[in-house]
């Protein structure tokens, strides 16, 4: 879903929905505060967030998975597969599965290594362990109650950490910040801390600072006219990335997060770009939902995580196991 405009303030619709949000948050936290969640047969690292939408959980999951692989671990990413039809547990195969089957994030992760989709994460992790994995990384697992997490990492958007401060549906929060942080072992601060909220975070929780940087291929868009489109949780970040690399956005089209693209959705954008002498561009997450033919016609902008302190990241991973 695209974030509604009223998530930026605390009056009007947001105030009307705020009591419902308190109920939603209480239920979410009560389920997540599961002291008796079953343990998997391998260590589990959870990457999650306290808000709905794109704080950077998937790029962080990709980065941590790569670091674990560099240390000799046999990783498996396990996720719900939001937007996909398969309940799992099923190992993702890019040659067999589409985003309609397993969701878009799963198709990003499988490029890097073994990836499993499972509504019940414990089943996905145990299946991955049986296939040889030595550690599992959950993408968006912070509120999932059905599995014990050995390391719980929360990703927070430094530019807009909590929106209007209300809980869904009145705002972007999934639960009260204090309840979510009480289950947190490390915080990833993504991007510039424009509100100085880091000073208000619990001092005992390690703070890892990071930023999202475009891949080198994206720099070829510098000075180019582009027709941009995306269906992600935080489209403003994509727009900002294009501007930072010097692309000239001559047209913009936003879609719902995880929206399944049909030919009728994308072909008019390709025609528009051709008529304007511009390049059609989208995110890597959106690209996996395009047909193979349309994907070849679109410039794909990928981003990666740049850590401020690599040693601090590795030290936190070592809290889970030693390599």
Q: What this model shows, in words?
A:
Helix content is 31%, strand content 20%. By secondary structure, it is an alpha/beta fold. The protein folds into 2 domains: 5-212 and 306-317, Rossmann fold; 216-301, 3-Layer(aba) Sandwich (Rossmann fold), CATH 3.40.50.2300. The strands form 2 sheets. A 9-stranded mixed β-sheet has the order 3-4-2-5-1-6-7-8-13, with helices on both faces. A 4-stranded parallel β-sheet has the order 10-9-11-12. The longest helix is centred in the N-terminal third of the chain and has 20 residues, at 13-32. The termini are far apart.
Keywords:
323 residues, Rossmann fold, nine-stranded mixed β-sheet, 11 helices, globular
Distance between the termini: 40 Å
Q: In the residues, how many domains can be counted?
A: 2
Order of helices and strands: HEHEEHHEHEEHEEEHEHEHHEEH
Residue-averaged pLDDT, rounded? 92
Q: Beta-sheet strand percentage? A: 15-25%
Low-confidence stretches: none
Classified by CATH, the class of the largest domain is Alpha Beta
Annotation, overall tally of beta strands? 13
Architecture per CATH nomenclature, i.e. the level-2 architecture of the largest domain: 3-Layer(aba) Sandwich
C-alpha Rg (nearest Å):
20 Å
Tell me the structural class.
alpha/beta
**Morphology call:** globular
CATH domain topology of the largest domain: Rossmann fold
Biggest sheet details: 9 strands, mixed
Going across the biggest sheet, name each strand in turn.
Answer: 3-4-2-5-1-6-7-8-13
Q: Give helix % range.
A: 25-40%
The number of helical elements comes to 11
